[in-house]
Amino acid sequence: MKHSIAKATLTALSLAVAGCGSSPPSNEEVQQAIGDYVDSLLGGLEKPKSGGRSDADKKELAQIKVINCAKSDAGGYKCDFVGFPMARSARFVKSDKGWVYLPQ
User: Fold this and answer.
1) Which H, E and C letters describe the chain, residue by residue?
2) Which range marks the domain in which residue 49 is found?
3) Do 90 and 101 contact (CB within 8 A), yes or no?
4) pTM
5) How close are the terminal C-alpha atoms of the chain, in Å?
6) Does residue 71 fall inside a structural domain?
7) Tally of domains in the chain
8) Which of 5, 37, 39, 95 has a 20 to 30 A CA-CA distance from 78?
9) What is the C-alpha separation between 72 and 93, in angstroms, rounded?
10) What values do phi and psi take at 6, rounded to 5?
11) 16 belongs to a structural domain
12) Could you tell me if residue 96 is inside a domain?
């Protein structure tokens, strides 16, 4: 009987912890994830000499606006957004380094 109660308690705690911090990415996090994805595709070829993103890239990323995010059956969130260069949907998953953009 003691083992059943302990097992039930551990299961309940595990489920509670799994739900912690499970909120969708913010608009800024979506912008950052898409920017990181583009940077990885370019391999740093178009980075300005000063490092980081150019003003034009920053302006383009700032135009991205999240319309809706819902939990994805595949994990993470499926988000609808506009502004890069049109309306799109993509999945975003949380990693230890932040949100990751997974275009569909």
Assistant:
1) CHHHHHHHHHHHHHHHHHHCCCCCCCHHHHHHHHHHHHHHHHCCCCCCCCCCCCHHHHHHHHCCEEEEEEECCCCCEEEEEECCCCCEEEEEEEECCEEEEEEC
2) 24-103
3) yes
4) 0.72
5) 49
6) yes
7) 1
8) 39
9) 9
10) -65, -45
11) no
12) yes
pLDDT tier at 61 (50, 70, 90 boundaries)?
very high
Decide if 69 is inside a domain: yes
For residues 57-80, one letter each, b for 16 or more C-beta atoms within 10 angstroms of the residue's C-beta and e for the rest, the string is beebbeebebeebeeeeeebbbbe
Q: Quick one: tokens of 102? A: 């997974």
Identity of the residue numbered 74: A
- What residues contact residue 66 under an 8 Å CB cut-off, 6+ apart? 25, 26, 27, 30, 79, 80, 81
Q: Name the residue among 35, 17, 41 with its Cα closest to residue 92.
A: 35
